[in-house]
Design a protein that fits this description.
binds adenosine-5'-diphosphate; alpha/beta; binds magnesium ion; 10 strands; 2 domains
Length: 271
Amino acid sequence: MSVAEDIANEPGRSFERGVANSVLHIDDVHKSFAGLHALSDVDLDVRQGETHAIIGPNGAGKSTLLNVCVGRLKPDRGAVVFDGTVLTGKQPHEINQLGVARVFQTPEVFPDLTVLENVMVPALSKRDGHFRLNPFKSFARENHIRDEAVSVIESVGLKAQLSDMAAAMSRGDKRRLELAMGLIQHPRLLLLDEPTAGMARHDTNATIELLKQIKQGGMTKVIIEHDMHVVFSLADRISVLAGGRIIAQGKPDEIKNNPKVREAYLGEEQV
Ligand code: ADP
Ligand code: MG
């Protein structure tokens, strides 16, 4: 019996009828790139308030799945539902307006803006419904948003770099900056694609602590992560992708001891 079937057979729960407290429902998603099946038959439920890790070897389809969720890629089949709203077919900015924020694998920051300005942009755009860079409007006048941006920047450990241009930052710092850009939106769902990649160990640990604090605030998170220390520090539940398919789902201890997962990682790092 598969782990997925085990979960479906837990009392009071059924895959067919949906998982209790599911806030993000990924239903039978399929995505191919020129004949390569990047995602096949992917079903996944993320529950309200949990931190759900998606792990798997390189090329397993993790980033593709995240891009399907945020509207950057259209699935060939299947759908993604967030809190009862079908996301599939919506534009990325529409999905963002529904309360879904993301931190991409390759940080996407505005290189010619300062750290402070970068963090103010999503807050201004959320307030106004759009954002256009206006050279005649000083960001500094937006007192309330600026104050909040400063406090979020402090929480990710970038206060000393407030006035630095984003272009000059290291990859690890850009990642923390992007996390701040996500957090200032107060999203209901935060999707993170390898948020600690490129970070030194002490910055990784600081990010783990920050994500733990955010969890206490009740925000639902999906985290794609390669670093098993991060995964096992944060995850309430884990889904394992290999070759575009979910091969296991469960609590961290169940995943750690699952032979299929160990096999998928053979030749990679140890789980
Ligand atoms: P992961 O994030 O788990 O490392 P990805 O989702 O990035 O994996 O990639 C899954 C598979 O799909 C890989 O074989 C990758 O080469 C392929 N792939 C991803 N994006 C594209 C694309 N835009 N065009 C063609 N192939 C892609
Ligand atoms: Mg990836």
